[in-house]
Amino acid sequence: MMSRSYTNLLDLASGNFPVMGQAREKKRLPRVMTVPGVISELDDDQANSVSSDVPSSVIQDRIIIVANQLPVKAKRRPDNKGWSFSWDDDSLLLQLKDGLPEEMEVLYVGSLKVDVDPNEQDDVSQLLLDRFKCVPAFLPPDILTKFYHGFCKQHLWPLFHYMLPFSANHGGRFDRSLWEAYVAANNIFSQRVIEVINPEDDYVWIHDYHLMVLPTFLRRRFNRLRMGFFLHSPFPSSEIYRTLPVREEILKALLNSDLIGFHTFDYARHFLSCCSRMLGLEYQSKRGYIGLEYYGRTIGIKIMPVGIHMAQIESVLRLADKEWRVGELKQQFEGKTVLLGVDDMDVFKGVNLKLLAMEQLLKQHPKWQGRAVLVQITNPARGRGKDLEEIQAEIQASCKRINETFGQPGYDPIVFIDRPVSLSERVAYYTVAECVVVTAVRDGMNLTPYEYIVCRQGVSESGSSSESSGPKKSMLVVSEFIGCSPSLSGAIRVNPWNIEATAEAMNEAISMADAEKQLRHEKHYRYVSSHDVAFWSRSFFQDMERTCKEHFRRRCWGIGLSFGFRVVALDPNFRKLSIDHIVSVYLRSKNRAILLDYDGTVMPQTSHNKTPSSEVISIINTLSGDIKNTVFVVSGRGRESLGKWFSPCKKLGIAAEHGYFMRWSTNDEWEICGQTSEFGWKEIAEPVMKLYTEATDGSNIEYKESALVWHHRDADPGFGSSQAKEMLDHLESVLSNEPVAVKSGQFIIEVKPQLMTRYGEFFT
Question: Could you tell me the pTM of the whole model?
């Protein structure tokens, strides 16, 4: 049966999901609730929100980690009867447990890398839950293909790596059916989480771009759920992200998390810029933490690059001599200087750029011919498509050309390894490499440099690695467009598109004095060893705890439909106004003061035609016609326009320019309520405003009788806001001796007399 929240989401996405009808009804896992008291809905009119008014008595917390794939390996039994499962020690999801509290239970929700027959799915689910605390999400084949190979790999992955679909042959046009499958897949993941969650006790940590709309499904069901999201890929600049047809749906879904994590400040800055430009949200930095205010909730922004699992690398390093004979590699490359590349076969890894830089190195510095070797390990591709096939062919052609041009008997300048390489074999190559080169044109993080640094350090004296004695040194040439680059200050950073500069950087790295290499290596090792995966997960979880600590002290309401759903969080003392109560009090009262704002209340804020409609005039006349009512329109607008618009409303009072001018009815004269009639300050303020208006496209000056207002609503959001702050300081400086107040508001800077009457003072 389809949930109500899912049905609403479909309304926005497409109105209908034909693929969902093919999904087989699954037997649900038993769900145990540990929440005492009554399970209630926080808002009867909106989403079904399971919650409790009192904290749970269960002391032990639990975290549910949700990702596209579970951290387990699966293989068919030899007799073809059933499945055999084991932990995937290379999985980040498994490694991050080291940073969580020891007493915390960890549950995993995700899909498997293998196809499980529908008849076996219930048994596999129970087995994984009992033995591994894993809850598998089984996606129907048609949804899986469109979700992963379609929307994730054809739309999100290229876009987040700055590749736009300029033509149908490169990237492909936006396909709404793929988006529908993405939403459907996220809904399946949410149902698996809902089956096992204890909403008052559990934390939920969602990982990566495959599940970016999952927070909306979960938040709609559990308003006060403690939930974090971490994006492991880059987040593109707003100019790129805004090309996505479902940009706001994804952005609003992410904002249903409590904490959103990124590897670098650049990625976080791009996300915040999108929130500002598309949703009008501004972030604040307080005591080192960045927060976004969103309907009363403060959403934390976490910037923390992930690290490596030190113990795993060191344990493999101790076995490297046994499992993969380092001595053989040293013998193979005896007398040679080894540069190493380890990359996935991906259009964004810049492997061919690296090969071209190696070719340029051999041309520019002939001394390295016969001496320098680039070993390029290329892991199998995880995606597919025409672009990938083209880059594979280009790489093969470059390797052949370089080896034919510069090769000698017993010497090939390029050693290309195009097959899966185990961690132990990779460690052996790290051990003999003088320099690691990473030339990705865009990469979320890339942990290859971190692994290399630890391998070059070797293990402690008690270990058996051949690198455990002697001076430790390493060199890195890394692209400035990868996530780990900012943390490696001793690396030589390059623009991988500049082949000549990259070649020179490679030459500098392998020609550098050993003492300098040692100093750079020591600096890098201190950082990598202290900022490992446990440090990363511990830091993220602590921030999630801090961000969510007020959840059960606030009143929450879920409002909105589809991807417009959000939770409004208010003070515990807040009480929702009852319309019946308002009507009752209104009818009993003998005297009523009704103050109506104009823009945004009487007239829509976004309307260009500000003249009130006949319906508005009729309503105001009805209200002001009651002898018990005193009705005022209170506005910052001028008396001339307000008087003209409301001329049919004979008994309506008007407070213009925020109360500087006031009129009780059309038969009365305008009164000046301000205590000053001296406006010489305008001659000082106006030239300043004109200066900023000329420099800020989309801004304008509004001339009032009592004030000057500079508007920047139609200017570029970032530039307009920056100019407004600068103008505020400028005006406060030049008007410091004048009897005026300089105020900033929503897209405005206003200069007005200090003692001007404000709202509500008319009736005191």
Answer: 0.82
